[in-house]
Amino acid sequence: MTTTEAKRIIEALRTGIPVPDGFVREFTVGRTEEIAGLMDTLSRSDKKACLLNANYGSGKTQMLRFLREYALEQGYAVALVTCDCKAGLRSNRMDQVLGAVCKNLEFPGDDRKGVLPFLWAVLDRCLHTPFGKELSNNGAWRRSEVLQSPAMYVAIRACRLLTDDIQNLLEDWLQNPYNYKGQRKLLYEKLVSGFRDPRSEKGFYIDGVFCFDLQGYDQSWKALADLDTLAKESGMKGLVLLIDEFEDFITNMRNIEHEERAMVNLFGFNEGKFSGHSFFAVTPEFVNKCVVRLRVKGRTDFEFRRFKSIEKFEMSPLDAEHILELLKKKIIPTHGRAYGWKPRLKNDAEIMTVIKWAATSPDRTRQIVKGVVKQLDKFWDERQA
Prior knowledge:
six-stranded mixed sheet, 52% helix, 6 strands
């Protein structure tokens, strides 16, 4: 860890922001069994949805970020997205979920983020493989059956066109597909007309090739599956989706049909509509909230049993011993590296005082870390005076 990196970490912790990407695993303590279980889940061939159950402030987001770093290291492509109805990412809208995945897509060996760098990497790695030859019709690029989504085939074919306007249009379309419902002619002229596709322009419109919200968002699901396929065919282990604040729809939606669709989408991830791994951060009461909400709204014919087949990991808050370990072995040495000194509190009792002070806070670990950093800052200022 360099001095600059240490300063970035301390500056984040000082304001209650999590440590920057790249240092999450280093600053994760405790939860050995939970982490081992999640790693085991990631290594399985049966790829179903997994719920990370924890109360507010107990580390759901931290664990998703841990999984992000671990999955990238293990050779997976990863997308970490946060559901927020008010910000335009509704879990009942799979076109919005797809757009967020495309926007946040990361893959091993490359610092770039987004769907275009991913597609370029796929073409570079697999174009001359048997899969690549089948994908491109031996270079003819007319049509292919190796991808489920016609839109994704249009996209990977068009990303070979290097003009800036086409690149920008393609990226924006995949990352915000819901904004292009009335622009199918523009998409056809820019992304298709330069290729010898056997289908007519009218055929593209009739088949809904540019639409991701038809037939229960069928093409959104297929495009997600294609991203997993492309990752695997280009030498990665597949695509891992990490969904934070998935429970947002219960709090911020007021339409039971939309809420029910969000629940059904969760089942889709668990029952094979997406071929990769998926992890969802929720509170321990999530399933019960869903059941109560459905029953209150008269949805008594809902298949409640489908909730039972979803794997769940219960995450408890860090205990005092692990928080003490985090402070003594991680936070305090990092502060020293950041400012070039050897900080030490007089004894563990000083830290335990801060721990006890924040014991009743729902996000006590964050508050404890902020308190200790504030104390270290005070000692450092006194030393400089």
